[in-house]
Design brief:
Order of helices and strands: HHHHHHHHHH
Distance between the termini: 48 Å
Shape: globular
Structural class: mainly alpha
Number of helices: 10
CATH topology of the largest domain: Tetracycline Repressor, domain 2
CATH architecture of the largest domain: Orthogonal Bundle
Number of domains: 2
Length: 229
């Protein structure tokens, strides 16, 4: 059955939602999450504040949509990197990790948005946010799972209680199952890479005079080990 062409009303509604989100993201880029204002958006669009509530239930609803949009953009960037032709599994992990850092440097406001403390709020624990956040992590885990020494054959042991929690966490993504050792490696590696990127974005590495790109590359090389070639 062919898809129905959206009506003029539906197209207008979607265009208006996109305009609201674009202006909102611009506010965040200029002043952080605290700068997001429904009233300011309405003023810029020359409409009443009440008119925006036809498209978003409120500021939290708009913020959630922006978080989901940013997560999906990150995931798409990483998926594109993973889908390229790579000479080895290690090269694929390198490409995915580089895509993560490059996206953060190109869109620091989006990076801070998805990894800000606001994500701990109940209104941002929706299925949409959880699903969107899992998508980029699954790209990373899938790439790691192809490394020769990432799975059960690596000899790494995982505490049974932790293994159970890792497995339960990953099972919610509906992705193919991965060994607990790969999941633990993924979480541990991501925290290290995320930490370096966050420190770089916030300027905390400047005092060291060490090139952040070299530090990041060293972490990735350590992760992929012998499969770097």
């Amino acid at each position: 059955m062919s898809e129905q062409t959206p009506s003029r009303r539906e197209r207008y509604r979607e265009q208006t939602r996109e305009e609201i989100m674009a202006i909102g993201l611009g506010q965040i880029a200029a002043g952080g999450v605290a700068a997001l204002s429904m009233n300011a958006i309405a003023k810029q669009m020359a409409v009443s504040g009440a008119a925006l509530y036809r498209y978003f239930a409120g500021r939290d609803d708009l913020l959630t949509a922006l978080v989901v949009q940013a997560y999906e953009d990150l995931a798409q960037t990483m998926e594109t990197a993973a889908a390229g032709r790579h000479r080895s599994a290690g090269a694929r992990v390198q490409a995915v990790a580089d895509a993560y850092r490059n996206w953060a440097l190109a869109k620091p406001h989006c990076y801070r948005l998805v990894f800000s403390t606001w994500l701990g709020a109940d209104h941002l624990s929706s299925k949409e946010v959880v699903s969107a956040s899992a998508r980029s992590m699954n790209v990373f885990l899938s790439a790691l799972g192809q490394l020769p020494e990432s799975g059960e054959s690596s000899g790494r042991t995982v505490n049974p209680a932790l293994a159970a929690e890792l497995t339960a966490w990953h099972s919610r993504s509906a992705e193919p199952a991965l060994p607990a050792s790969t999941l633990r490696l993924g979480i541990a590696s991501w925290t290290r890479l995320h930490g370096l990127v966050s420190l770089e974005l916030d300027g905390h590495l400047r005092a060291t005079t060490i090139d952040p790109a070299l530090l990041y590359s060293a972490e990735v090389a350590d992760l992929i080990g012998a499969d770097a070639a």
